[in-house]
Amino acid sequence: MTSTQQRAKLQRQIWQIANDVRGSVDGWKFKQYVLGALFYRYIGENFAYYIEGGDESINYAELVDDVITPASCLPTSP
To answer: How far apart, in Å, do the first and last CA atoms of the chain sit?
Structure first.
């Protein structure tokens, strides 16, 4: 089997798996879901770098919650 044939076979298998996962959901809606999930992952991976802005003295993961969300913005318990 040539490389081109292997690639075509792999592509057919991937499409079949995607169709099985998608089920009866419209392709456009499924695409929106997948792209949304990819965007959410991208934001999650790059959020800390954006907040820190390349400043080595800031470590977002170690900041206390009051610095990130001031107490005045938090909901109060009834």
So the answer is: 69
